[in-house]
Write a structure and sequence with these properties.
Elements lengths: L1 H13 L1 H22 L13 H12 L7 E8 L8 H15 L4 E2 L8 H11 L9 E5 L2 E8 L5 E8 L8 H18 L1 E5 L12 H18 L2 H24 L8 H33 L3 H28 L7 H32 L6 H14 L4 H11 L1 H16 L7 E2 L11 H13 L7 E7 L8 H12 L4 E9 L5 E8 L6 H10 L5 H6 L1 E7 H35 L3 H26 L15 E2 L2 H29 L6 H27 L6 H33 L8 H6 L8 H10 L1
Parallel strand pairs: 7-12
Antiparallel strand pairs: 1-5, 1-6, 2-5, 3-4, 4-5, 8-10, 8-11, 9-10
Length: 758
């Protein structure tokens, strides 16, 4: 492997424009495709193979008009005056009529599935205590379609239905809805609050991300000591993100891609792109300084040795990400593939474009002044630097260090026992956002359950049986008698009359435990109302989708972990030719990931330090976050494992024994691993302060996870454990040694071949 990569690096150095031109052509193709196809991003989280998705698919066949998504607009008076004045009702009526004529919005005047007659019949037969505390807004004796009025008359809720899924509706249509209703603010002095589903996705790079890149640039400058050298990792990482994420965008008109996929690719691409290039450039400079090699030979050897570590580190990340494909959830698969492709591109850039750019710079990569300064520094500080003192202290007090780290990370993991999974939404948005204000206004006027209604599909077990108005009324009444049910309304009946649809409003909010329990209760086939009426009941809606997603992820999570662990153990065994080191690396990662989830739970679910991280309301953790964070952190943790321990392995192969390989390898690699970890933490930390709570949670988990794994586990716990095993850490059974291919990651065969040529 090292010999092959040495040849690639040497060729790229000698013929830089061949490689640079090739990559620029690829970038130009990506930009051209984006220009032709445009960017199409959604927030849809479709969960194939679940009960809630089955019901949605059934609706699209039986009652396609009722299978579309729903949007809402809240009208609220600012001075507690009533909403149903002639002037205000006229303005609202004009606004909603403009909404109903928009393409993609279902106009109830044109399409009726029988819901109006059923609702009217129910209201006529209901007693006073059975009627809801709110009512319809009446204008000239006729209810305004889709508009409810709160009991005190200060809040009106306009609910309308799209002809298809909300995420499939172009943002231009949603903007037109908001624009049409915003007119009411000027005409009638009413505050207009769009629901979260109507608001545009925020994909831009914010201040936090820019600061993260600036910090990374400063770390690169301090590590490499040169503006020119520091600029190379940044340039390759930005190009890698441009091609990787840009390539995903260019295909977004053919492949459904979520906003989280793009942001995840951006986060990982920037972090690994900078780290991989940094590791190679640092190795080249060390070869120039320590072995007095010329720039070309040093660059070629750096690609052959450090490049091998980069290749296998990247391969581990890619395997961890692609392991998500076993989950068989399309948006997660897309997310994983975008991130994995971005990592692959950054690996290829580090192995081809980077040596080409080094070839353009030539000997200017290290000035004579820098070479002399390094020589003087090495003579004065040999074996007296901080890293040397640190590693010797860790080895000396290895058992207290091991015990202390295990206890601290164990305590940090305890909040995971109370971790609640869900889909963060308007309920956890910041108080000053339109989505949160709309959520709170709906809660104030109609109850929190209106923010997460269920769609119930009742189907006759005997296909020849029909739903009569009397049966519909009885079913509605029995559903309303269930615990935690506020209101139930019929939405329509299919043409055959054997399938009816209902809207159920729970008393509690979408993220409450009681609401989730209600879904489970309604899905119970032994429920008395189902058996007595001979029907099957299906439940879908926001909370139902949330429950199904969490259940499916819980089922496949052990399989996912098993796949990435097995493949990564094989890779690490091939790289380090050891049994102990791969197992130790995996155990260390388990400590890291448990502590990461524990601290993420404490911050986002319990609200610890919420003001520091820029959010007002605590809530559930993103349901698919554990599997994403596990995959990414496992891959990145193995990056540091490969970078650090490959230096120790190289020292061992070159003759050091006992604890000397640990000390020598640590001194050689710790500085660049420290810089790489600081860079990655800085890049991920920038995403904590974005407005999107999903990106915020992922950014925080990756930041704290990298911090724990790099600084506490890899740079402290790993050498302490290796010191316990001493030379046995490199043990490999002879029979296994014979059958495993020697990949020569440390470059021993390469150096021998080069010395023979000399």
């Amino acid at each position: 492997m090292s010999t092959f990569l040495y040849k690639i690096g040497n060729t790229a150095y000698r013929k830089p424009w061949h490689f640079i031109t090739g990559w620029l052509i690829i970038l130009a193709i990506v930009v051209s495709l984006i220009g032709v196809n445009g960017i199409h991003v959604s927030s849809e989280m479709k969960i194939e193979g679940t009960e809630s998705q089955r019901i949605l698919d059934q609706l699209s066949q039986e009652l396609p008009l009722a299978s579309g998504g729903q949007g809402s607009i809240v009208f609220k008076t600012s001075n507690d005056t009533r909403m149903d004045t002639p002037e205000r009702m006229s303005a609202i009526s004009k606004a909603i009529n403009e909404v109903y004529v928009l393409e993609g919005v279902l106009n109830p005047a044109d399409f009726d599935t029988g819901a109006s007659e059923l609702t009217l019949l129910m209201m006529q037969n209901a007693s006073a205590d059975q009627l809801p505390p709110y009512g319809y807004m009446i204008m000239d004796g006729i209810p305004l379609p889709g508009v409810l009025l709160s009991s005190d008359g200060t809040i009106a809720l306009f609910q309308f239905q799209f002809t298809k899924d909300v995420n499939s509706i172009p943002q231009e249509v949603k903007d037109s809805i908001i624009e049409a209703t915003k007119v009411v603010e000027n005409e009638a002095g009413i505050t207009v609050l769009p629901s979260e589903s109507l608001l545009p996705l925020q994909l831009g790079i914010g201040t936090g991300e820019i600061i993260g890149v600036i910090v990374a640039a400063m770390v690169l400058l301090m590590t490499l000591g040169s503006m020119v050298a520091a600029g190379l990792p940044l340039l390759t990482a930005l190009l890698g993100v441009g091609i990787g994420v840009g390539g995903a965008f260019s295909l977004s008109s053919f492949i459904e891609m979520s906003s989280v996929s793009a942001m995840l690719g951006l986060m990982i691409g920037l972090a690994v792109g900078i780290d991989y290039a940094l590791f190679i450039v640092n190795r080249q400079r060390r070869l120039i300084f320590d072995q007095k090699l010329g720039s070309q030979e040093a660059a070629s050897r750096a690609i052959g040795t450090a490049g091998s570590a980069v290749f296998f580190a990247g391969l581990t990340v890619i395997i961890a990400l692609c392991g998500m494909l076993v989950i068989e959830i399309s948006f997660l698969s897309t997310m994983a593939l975008v991130a994995a492709a971005t990592v692959l591109i950054n690996v290829l850039l580090a192995l081809t474009l980077l040596p080409a750019m080094l070839g353009l710079l030539g000997e200017r990569i290290c000035s004579q002044k820098a070479r002399q300064k390094n020589t003087d520094k090495a003579a004065n500080t040999a074996h007296s630097g901080f890293s040397d003192r640190w590693i010797r202290g860790v080895i000396k007090f290895r058992w207290p260090v091991i015990i202390c780290i295990i206890v601290v990370l164990g305590v940090a993991s305890t909040p995971i026992l109370k971790m609640d999974m869900g889909i963060p939404g308007a309920a956890t948005a910041n108080l000053d956002t339109a989505a949160r204000q709309s959520y709170d206004a709906i809660t104030e006027g109609f109850g929190e359950g209106f923010n997460g209604p269920f769609v119930l599909v009742a189907e006759q077990e005997n296909s020849s049986s029909k739903f009569t108005p009397e049966l519909i009324m009885n079913l509605v009444q029995e559903l309303k008698n269930q615990d935690n049910v506020d209101q139930v309304s019929p939405l329509g009946i299919n043409e055959n009359g054997n399938l009816a649809i209902f809207s159920l409003i729970p008393e509690t909010g979408p993220s409450d435990t009681e609401t989730k329990e209600l879904v489970t209760q309604l899905r119970d086939p032994d429920l008395s109302i189902l058996q007595s009426n001979g029907i099957k009941l299906g439940v879908t809606g926001f909370t139902a989708v949330n429950i199904d997603m969490s259940a499916k992820l819980a089922d496949v999570f052990p399989i996912y972990i098993g796949i990435i662990v097995i493949f990564s153990l094989i890779i690490l065994m091939l790289v380090f030719r050891s049994v102990v080191i791969p197992i130790k690396a995996t155990v260390g990662f388990l400590l890291s990931i448990l502590a990461t989830f524990g601290m993420t739970t404490a911050v986002f679910q319990w609200g610890w330090l919420n003001s520091v991280f820029g959010f007002d309301t605590s809530g559930p953790l993103l349901s698919f976050m554990p599997i994403i964070i596990t995959g990414i952190l496992y891959g990145l943790a193995m990056d540091y494992q490969v970078f650090l321990v490959s230096s120790m392995r190289e020292s061992y192969v070159h003759g050091h024994r006992g604890k000397e390989p640990i000390i020598h390898g640590y001194n050689q690699a710790s500085r660049v691993v420290l810089a790489a970890a600081v860079i990655m933490v800085s890049v991920f930390a920038g995403f904590i302060f974005t407005d999107d709570i999903i990106i915020k949670q992922i950014g925080f988990a990756l930041t704290i996870g990298i911090f724990i794994d790099a600084f506490i586990v890899r740079m402290t716990l790993v050498p302490a454990v290796m010191a316990v095993f001493d030379s046995k850490a490199w043990w490999l059974p002879k029979w296994l040694d014979r059958i495993l291919p020697n990949l020569d990651v440390e470059g021993d065969k390469l150096i021998t071949k080069l010395n023979q040529k000399d």
